[in-house]
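note to self — DONT lose this again. spent like an hour looking for the file last time. sequence + predicted structure for the chain T wanted, 206 res
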Amino acid sequence: MNAIQISNALQALQKDPIMSFLAQKFGDVITISDRYEKDHAKALALLVVEQQVSFKAAQTIKARFLNLIDGLSYTQIIALDNDLVQSVGVSHRKVEYIKNIYAHFNQEPRDYAAQSPEDIHRSLIKIKGVGLWTIEMFLIFVLGEPDIFSKGDLALINSIKKNYNLDPLSNDDLNGLIQSWRPHNTVASLLLWCSIEQKIFYSKDK
């Protein structure tokens, strides 16, 4: 997604008063470039590092991991001693998952930029350790797909509960919102993430 696409999505989401509020607050700061990585194997490996750890911890571990693999080929990364990879803060299980990712890309050339989200999902889900959330983040931040919403992302769900005053949040309500934001769910997600990170939420009194 480029700046024009994001701008058009923000304009289209204005019909939702809550999205309109969030767009006024965060429309100038949302971006997908902060997690972009042209090397798709590395991008997925970094997303695995992020799983189930705090943002601050993830940033530290990712920096150490990138330093460790700097200049190495996929084959060399796969051959790294597991204890060495763990020493930068990656769990034993995640070391296995990361090596599975590099093995997947080492088998044959893969041009995911030219494939549909459905085809990408079918291919990546076969890698042990790569689940739906990881694929959705890959589609958003690496491939810039415009209409992705991750129902398994706790921060997004909590942001919806706060902004839309929907707690508990039913599956029907969630599906209704996702449908109403189409085809701009990626930008809606970026706004919701900013909202919960900044602790700024919509209120009828504002």
